Amino acid sequence: MERRKFKRYVFTFEVLCKNIFRLFWIKQIYAVDVSRGGMKIYAKRNFRKGTILKLKVLNPFIKKPIRAKAQVVWSSRKDPDKDIWAMGLNFIDIKQTESNKLLYGVDI
After folding, report:
1. Cα dist. 100→24, 58, 71 in Å?
2. CA angle 17, 46, 87 (to 5 degrees)
3. Of 13, 18, 33, 92, whose CB neighbour count within 10 A is largest?
4. pLDDT higher than threshold 70 for residue 88
């Protein structure tokens, strides 16, 4: 039985993210599925469960990055032979307009 509250949309966007205590944005992170409640990302580094991240999602159809804050709720190595991690993020701060841009590609 599916426990998700929101429908998931499968597409890939580049994401810039940083730990809220860091100055620099980390690249080479990709959102691979998104819902109104959060997203799954693939990254070349691991963020531990509970880590709060600031996000900039780069949707090629929208001029400005979509901004949100999310918490890592799970993390696992995607491929044991490669240093790529899959992580589940729960949005803890995202405006309704930003959520709409993310899900529907509409710049309102």
Report:
1. 27, 14, 20
2. 75
3. 13
4. yes
